[in-house]
Amino acid sequence: MALNDLVFTDINDSPDNPRLGLGYHQLYDPTSFIGLISKLPDVTRVGDTITLFWDGDIAQQYDLNQPTIDKGWLSFNVSPSRILDPEGDVYYTLYDHEAEDLQKSPSRIIAVNRRVPGGLDPETDTAFNENMALCTVSPDPVSSPEATVTVSVPKWINQEVGDELTVMWNNIRVPYPKLQTLGPVDVIIPPEVLEQGMSSDKLLVNYEIRDIVDNYSLVSPSTYVTVEIDPDALPAPRVEEADRATLILDLEALGDNDAHVVIPSYIGNGNAYVVTLTWVGKTPMADISLNLPPLPIDDPVFDHATFIIPNVHLRQIAGGSAVARYSLVQQGVTEPKQSKTTSITLTGLPVELAGPVVLEAGGTAIIDLALVTGDSVTVSIAAYTGQNAGDKILLSWKGTPTAGGPVNYTDEYVIKVGEELLATTFVVLRQNLDPLGGGTLELTYQVVFKATGISQGSASTTYQVKAAIPATYPAPTVKDAPGGVLDPMKALAGATMTVAYDDMLPTDTIAPIWNGKNDTVDWQPGNTNKSVDFLVPPSVVAASLGKTFDVDYGVVRGMEVSSSDVLRLTVSPLPDSELGKSRPVVTEADQVTRVLDLNTFTGDAHVVVAKWPLSATGQRVWLTVSGPNGVPTLKLLEAYPITVEDVINGISRDISRAQLEQFSNGNELRVVVKVTFDGASSEASSIAFPAAVYTVKKFDDSVVPTITHVKDSQGIEIPENTITFDTNVTLSGSAQANKMVEIFDRTQSLGAATANNGGEWTRMFPNRASGLYVMKAKALYGAGLESSVRTFTIEFQAVPEPPAPDILEDNAANILDLTGLTQVTVRVPNYDMNIDDTVRVRWVGVNLHETAIKTIDAIAPLDFEIPLAWAREDIEKRVTVTYSYSRKGPIIVSLPLAISVVETGESLDLIRPEVVGAIGDDKDQLDFSMLSSGADVTVVVPQYTGMDVGQTVRVRWASRVVFQTTVEIVERIAPINFTIWRDEVIDSIGRLVDVNYSVVEQLDGPIIASRILSLNVLPQALDLVAPTINAGNTTVSVTYMGSLTSHTIAIRWRGMTDRVTGVQHPPSNGGVTRFTIPSQWVIENRGARVLINYSVGVGNNLLIYSQLLRIDIP
């Protein structure tokens, strides 16, 4: 069985084509494939494998289907990226799987050349290729028809052996033999061409090249030469609208107007004469003559002839040229007189061959197979410029289906006489179109011009082929659902939904619809088997338990969507026998006797729910533990969405020991689990599993609790029935391990304590009142046995608060300068000391430190040495120092001493700063209400000892946040003013502010802090805390104590722009007032910090300001 030859569909693949091959115009577009066809052999089978090879590599492979066999030929498409210069070797094979037989077609060797002679045209809006050099003519002028005239053509870009050069002498073609060597070419103009070209003052000479695969250079720029071979020739005609210097006729400037050829005046013998104009238009593909009737001139003295060249003819030769001459026959003269010639160039490129159209597409880019009623379609090709009898039109039909091999088709037609102005039509059978449903069709054609033998390709036309879609598709089926009822136990791994219909295409998109939703089952494409199985996930099956609903699907084909008939499906509920396998289990209980003995374990109990059939994430669970009346129901889970881990391992939760202890001996304990398989959050729609029921057992344990110790806050034992002056008392004792006891003072319960694993318990009772205490411990287990009583009396002695300590090394302003210090001494004054009092000092700064305890052995102040390391932790910070003492009773704490720790260095004495407007004897108070409206606060750094030019200074204002000014350079020895923003002052109202400054003496030197001014910013009538804002930054909330409905509140939003809300009245007594923040305020501050506070108007034009809320807008 011999295979037939391959035929290329995109070129004139004929032995008569002298330039057979693939060139630039076939290969430049990587998305436009090269088509081939081959007639099928006589014996083929569906499923035979067809493989196309290009240069030994597989270029395309597909299996034969019945439509291809019915059509009778094979089609192939090859990407230009596979096709390499200078030639390609292409063949195909047919493999018969049944006979295990491989056949190979004859090879085709095809020339390949992407290099266009002359190079690619850089200016596509001109009629010639600017890359090509001007030719030269020798001699110039030409004065004799016998002269040897040489046209010299320089070497051109991409010149190759086999190139065909053609010189045009006044539009008369002079071919040159195919190149054998590279370099400049001299072409001799034959005498007959000189005579035919006639005389001209500016005779047009240019050239063109075609290579071995018909790559075309376009025409070169024009050279003009003077030719005087007929001394009697009349003056040349003139094209009135052409430029007289360049002889270019600009068609854009001409518009829709005709052109005019003016014949020069001729008197001769004075008699009348008749003028005949010869006009030949020239395009790169054809010569187009214009036949005009002769014009009589009756009075040569006063008249001359003018011929009209129709605009439509000029547009036919746009981008080409035209030669005009005339002949004149005068009465009384036998021989006609001939004129010199005029050659003009017309701007604009030739009109391209328009793309072919399929009439059944109705002028659109879509061929709808449902609207094609006949057995064929019609391809129409419009008449083209210069269409002449004998021209051959080669149609190329390249179809790309959604599956299988391409569908290519070729046909040809030769223009007949009388058809020069008619469109050409091709009738193509539907068998070439039907397989393309859902795919594309590309149409092109070539014209082989009779006049020149040159071919030109058309523009391409691409259609989307829309497959015929039925109105509805058959209903789907569901496996294991006889009679439309699905047993969920047969779908634990998911259900199988099958879609099958006869015209299924691989490009179809099938969307299953399960219970009205198209997003629960994954969509799939169609296939050539005409049947697709879809997995319905177990979670979707679970959500359908106990429901009856519709199952169908949609088909998306191109831009069309169709639906199927409906399958009415019922999914049965899970049987109780299966749900019972996931009955809750309390692991500490005896699963045989169903008894939960609380004495057999310590701590909490654990409930386990095993994985149930069709469990899936998103299902919601309720898990409850209940008992008899009086025992609260414990909700371990409520609408809980289960996780992947729960699906794998089941669910486990704890029942707290405290909850278990609420059950009495013999009580029933019931554990119930409920599930909504569809993820609903309402318990009413849940399915309850069989409950787990247990009996609680609590033994009457015989361990009697005891109270073994009663101690004061110093850990000193309080003997039975004695007096203590300490109001903080701690009881400890014993009980059954991990059981609870309740502590009573007589009959009043004071709380409970739990014994540890060793059976020991402890409970502290702080701040007890004076009086007699009769304490006992009662077991909260077993029979509730009680301990023996312990009695003691508390007598409270009011002790005055001791005075604050003193630091010997600080100054009067309570500033401790560590410069030069070797120690820090805290002196505890005589606070009404007694011998044997115990005393210790506490230092609270960055860290909390306590000294060792000392015992008073003499009634005198007591000094404690503080390690310098403690103080150095707190440089530039405030420290609180206290002492405490005990006199075999409660611990008494002194008044605090607040100090500022600095280290100024040896050369500087950095006294504290001043605040302009501060009041009080020490100028350490600031009344915000006395500030001018909108004013900031000024801090003055004084002229400190050691101030020098070049030092740098900055001020620190430490309140709710720490604010630091910019750094200033000391330019003269004088006080320096710094500005504290008004907002920072507002944020400090009602607070103590540490104000100090720091100095750097030289570059990279240490930062030396000044003494601190502790500034009291006096409170307002209302204490206004900062507002709050929600997570979305859309609502600001305000609440404060003492609010009245007569108050007015407004929010200030200070970001890129200051904004103020409208005014609202708050509710009384601290209710919440909410303000909505416009989205624009948030948007304009993206990535910035915003300060938010509010003001309260309380009457008499008095405004009170809140603290600041500082937020960063994301």
Your description of this structure?
- The chain is mostly beta strands.
- It has ten domains: about 5-110, Sandwich (Immunoglobulin-like), CATH 2.60.40; about 125-230, Immunoglobulins (Immunoglobulin-like); about 230-350, Immunoglobulin-like; about 355-395 and about 420-465; about 470-570, Immunoglobulins (Immunoglobulin-like, Sandwich); about 575-695, Immunoglobulin-like (Sandwich), CATH 2.60.40; about 705-795, Immunoglobulin-like (Sandwich), CATH 2.60.40.10; about 805-900, Immunoglobulin-like; and more.
- About 5% of the residues lie in helices and about 40% in strands.
- It has twelve helices and 89 strands.
- The strands form 20 sheets. Strands 17, 19, 20, 21, 23, 24 and 25 form a seven-stranded mixed beta sheet that branches. Strands 35, 37, 39, 40, 42, 43 and 44 form a seven-stranded mixed beta sheet that branches. Strands 63, 65, 66, 67, 69, 70 and 71 form a seven-stranded mixed beta sheet that branches.
- A hairpin with a 5-residue loop joins strand 82 and strand 83 (about 1035-1040).
- The longest helix is centred in the N-terminal third of the chain and has 7 residues, at about 190-195.
- The radius of gyration is 54 Å and the shape is elongated.
